[in-house]
Amino acid sequence: MPELVDIGANLTHDSFDEDREEVIERAAQAGIGRIVVTGASEQGSRDALMLARQKPGTLYATAGVHPHHASDYDDRAHDTLASLVREPEVVAAGECGLDYFRNFSPADAQRQAFQRQLELASDCDLPVFLHQRDAHGDFVDILRPMMAEIPRAVAHCFTGDLNMLQDYLELGLYIGITGWICDERRGAHLKDIVADIPLTRLMLETDAPYLLPRTLEPKPGSRRNEPAFLTEVLRVVANAMGLPEIEVANATTRNSELFFGLR
Description:
It is a single chain. By secondary structure, the protein is α/β, with parallel strands linked by helices. The chain has a single domain, classed as Metal-dependent hydrolases (TIM Barrel, Alpha-Beta Barrel). Helices cover 39% and strands 16% of the residues. Helix 2 links the parallel strand 2 and strand 3. Helix 2 (42-54) packs parallel to helix 3 and helix 4 (107-124) packs parallel to helix 5 (136-143). The radius of gyration is 17 Å and the shape is globular. The protein starts with a strand and ends with a helix. The model has no long low-confidence stretch (mean pLDDT 97).
């Protein structure tokens, strides 16, 4: 089995403060060779970069402002991101996009922050780590004209339906699948459509500490998710696709290396 790549883990989250080193070691023991640490705010992006610098060749970072924090996206935040994305450990712009489910920031602020981060990715020739929830129409409208300007983009933590999936594939997006597919209450539909994702466009992620796979046996003592559990996402995805785990592992690792330019 090749070493897996977790393309999205929030390892700077305070739930990891007491045992972050052990979490990273457990991931390595489980066969997760590289982890992309998500930057979702101005400070969070700085923290992701600092963490990645501590584990070169194992940890990498993204730099972005999540739509929840779009109200904080001013010129200073933009300048900070413009500096961060030029650091060699930063392998993507984002997490950025739109989230009308929570609406923690006004929709206008979200759209403006999203557009500016796509332009930043274009300027730096970086791939983009995308977030979308309950905002599909506006998300596609903003993203479509920018796709020719950015090298690659991934729909992080895809939870949508077949029509959304087809729209994203038509745009050229990669698709990130998390433990949502392991949730019989909310994610059962993903098992029916994951086989529609070409193996050349599929990547795996935990979104730790969120989205603990509900199919894990034995059940962990905590509800906190961690990168070591990416193997369970692989198992469920491969089963739903009707493919051997090693085939899905090989494809998703190769895709992640090419997408993020991992060394």
